[in-house]
Amino acid sequence: MVLEQEIPAFATWIGPAILWFLFAASLLAVAAAAVTWLVQSVLYGPLTAGDRVYRGTLSGLGDLLSLSPRRVWALARLAMQESLRRNVLVVLALFGGIVLFAGWFLDPESVNPGRLYLGFILGATNLLASLVVLVLAVFSLPADIKAKSIQTVTTKPVRPAEIVAGRMIGFAAVGTAILVVMGIAGWAFVVRSVDHGHVAEIADIVEIRSEDGVLTGYEGRTSLDRGHRHRFSLNADGLGFTDFEQGHRHAVSLTDGGNQVVIGGPEGMLEARRPLRGTLRFLDREGKPSVKGINVGAEWSYRQYIEGGTLAAAVWTFSGITEEQFPDGLPLEMLVRVFRTYKGEIEKGIAGSVRVRNPQTLMQSDPFYFTAKEFTIDSLLIPTTVNTTTTDGGTRQIDLYESLVADGQVEIVLQCLEPAQYYGVAQADFYLRAGSGSFAFNYAKCCIGIWMTMLVVTAMGVGLSTFLAGPIALLASLMVILIGQFREFVERLFASQITGDATIAPGGGPIESLYRIATQMSITVDLEQTPVVTAMKTIDTFLLAPMRLGAGLFPSLSSLDTSNFVASGFDIPADLVAQQAVQTAGYVLVMFVLGAFFLRSREVASS
Fold this sequence. Notes:
single chain, alpha+beta, Jelly Rolls, 6-stranded antiparallel beta sheet, 15 helices
């Protein structure tokens, strides 16, 4: 799973986030007041305009602080009834059609069918739920204002802020009900779609015996189902597992006195792993520390590569390791990308090794060998007792926690063993499995993220519709969403420009990008530090500063999307859910205040 930035603890994140929110909200309030004063100055003169803005601000704040829950709920019920009259529930029939016919187009024989089904269902749920509430929100209030039916509400003791709040709550309630139905149906579809079984015949199982004829285990393979089969190994008691194929495995056992093979359901496809991640550093081909790995020419530099057949290595340092937490050893899981300089035997894979090392004494275990499987998570249990090579060339056993773990820290060293081949890794690709959560609960947390997206979209649609016509409000909402999708990119680009680290966001700012396009120069090639280049970068810094500030004002719906966690089989951290909840509350609050002030300025009761 791609995790470009570590998720900070909520307690660490909340302070700077609140400061940024207060700064952005103050900046937006000042800008809105300035624009309002300029417009009023043209109509009434500067002094009168200042007085009107002052009195209007105080009156508007008074309305916000005097909301009546009963009136807000009554208006929310009207919004829900209006939604039902517009046949909004038709979207459920559309979603049902998508679920019914999705099996025709989704390939169950793909590399990871669980990820495919989850990504499709969660994406469809997010799109339909957000789109339906956005259409409701942007067209409802302008239609009432145009038909003058809103006068029946505003002539009563109802404040503009209560109208805006009622619309937001009503449409959000309708969207929530739709999302609940979609979420349950989508979960059932995914679970049913990935569930499958295999069979194996006794005649296909081979007994494994030692040199003295003692039975040590069994080997065999399953039937071909869903476009794949598994090989399995059993111990002498007839218990074991298949190998991993398409992101899962099956438990296998011999019953009925060894005359029947029982193969369980798929395991590892719908999971909620809780990883313990470490920090990554690299060693070059001579075994010396390196700032980063090798760039093989990929424009997206998320993963760095190490050269095979050399001393090059990727080293992860894990902290907080205790025997109580991992009593059976270290459950290492890894995702390794492969870059081939020659084709070779493409189905064979590229051999590599993993060592466990003490970060203080540098004592290390003998290598654990594996073959990198692209797009599949490899698992390796490092036992509590491991072998190490002594200075005289012999081998002895050592205790993992006594000899290799120092002050709760341990190092995992990865090397590629085949010359002229490369392993590509990122910091998040290696982790220790600290436990597992419930997949159903993890799926529910992802749906909560979709629900937060729906709340932001609803608030945005209602807020913009208070001063724009329906079609214009829809286009404006889509524009805000589109700009917000580039928020993280602008932030990385600004950080790259300030720090001078081109790996954060290759290509530079607007002027440098234009220069690269004109000269047809790749974004991975560093520019010579000439006076012209220095001037370009300086101008880009001044251009990116307001872009960074402006991008921070737009909501990034992608930051609320946690479907990648669920599809990749990782538990969604509670810190991330809390951060998303605070962000959502902030954007909803801002759009509510803006909508209330804009609706008040229209004086719809007298129009």
